[in-house]
User: Fold this.
Amino acid sequence: MRRALFIGLLACCAAALVAVFLRPSPQPNIVLVIVDTLRADKLGAYGNPSPASAELDRLAAQGIVLEQVVAQASWTRSSVAAMLTGIYPRRLPVIKEQWDPLPNGVETLAEVLRRSGYLTVGLTANPQLNVDFKFEQGFDDYVESSVTFSWMKDRAGKEKAGQGHAVRVADDILGQSLELLQQAKSRPVYLQVLLMDVHAHHRIAADQVDADLQGYADSEYLQAVRNATRPLADFILRAKQILGENTVFIITADHGEGLKDHPSVEGSAKHGNLLYRSHLHVPLIVLGPERLIGKPAKLRGLAELIDLFPTVTDLAGVSGPSGIDGVSLLSAMQSSSPVAVGSTAISETRWRKGVSKLAITNGEWLFVDNRDAWSGTAPHELFPFSAPQNGAADSVLSAQPQVASGLEEGLKEFERRVRS
Assistant:
C-alpha cells in the first residue's frame, strides 16, 4: 500500500514537473521606439565615426543590428502606417499628407497585441500620429502630440507648432513613458513611442553643437541624434529595471533625411519629396534576451519596415492577420544568419501635390521612377545603393541598362499586385 502510494506520489510530481517545463514562457514585454528622421548611417552602430550615438551604440553591440532596412515611404505617416500594419502604403492606402488616416478596417500591431492580452501604451511627439489620423487604434492609453502643424485642423487645447510652441523632447516623453510602464503589473506590455528630436535638427545652431561633434559633417544633425539617443539609452536601462529581463526593445526610424547629399536636386535636404538612400535607409536595432532574439550579431541582407509587424507578432507568440506584405525576421535573428525574406524592397512618395515617385532596391542597386519632372532628377535613375545619389548627375542607368530594366520590371509587378 505504502509502496503504491509512494509510486503514485512520484507520478504526480513527475507530471507536475513536466507541466512546468512544457508550459509556454510568459509573453515578452515589447517596447518599440521610433526615432523620427534618423538615418542609419549617422549612428556609430552603422559605421558613423562620430560619438553622437555612443550610448545607444554600446547597447546595440549587445543585440541585433539589421544592416540594410528600407522604409516604405520618406515621410512619417505613410511609413509608420506601413510599419504598424505590415502592409504597403498604396494598399492601405495612406499616401496623401492631407488627409489620409490609418484605416479602421486594418488591424494594427497594438490591436493584435491587445487582443492577445497585452497592455498597450502609445506616445507620440509627432502630430502626424495624432488621433486625427486614427493612430490611437488598439491602445489602452494613448498620449498624442501636444501640438499640431500649421496646416492641420484646429483642435481644442492644441497649439500650433512653430508659433512659440515646440514638440515634446525625448527626455520629457520618455520620462512619461516610464511612469506609464508602472501600470503593467501582471500583464505583458506593448509600449510604442515616437521621438521627434532628430526631425528638429534644423533648429540647432552651430554654437549649440557639443565640442566633440564639431568638425564632423552634418554636425547639427549629429547633435540632434545625440539629443535623442542619449536619453533613449538611459530610458532602455530604466525600463528594463521596471519590466524585467523578459523584455524586447526595438529601435528604428520612420525615414531618413537628405541633408547635403543631393546638392543638384531641388528640395533634397529634408524628406518626403525624394526616395534616395539618405531618405530610406533606416536603423533597426533589437535588444533582448538571447533565448528570444538570438546572439548579438550584425545581420546582412535586405529587409523592409513592413517586416517589423510579423516579427513582433512572432516574438509575442500571437497570430497576426493574413494577407500582409511583411515577412518575419525572427528566424534570421535567432540563427544569426543573413536576412533572406525577399529579393527587393519597395518605397513610394506621393505625399504632396507635385510629388510622385516610386523606388525599388535589391540591396545592391536602387532604381527610382520619378513621375513628377522633379528638378535635378531624370525620369528614371539607377545608383549603386551605397554610392552617391545626386539625382541625374550621379545616375548610372545608361551604363547598366539590364540592371535598370530588371528593377523596373519589379516595380511594374508591384503595381500589378497592389491593383489586384
About this structure: Residues 1-24 have pLDDT under 50 and may be disordered. The first strand starts at residue 29 and ends at 35.
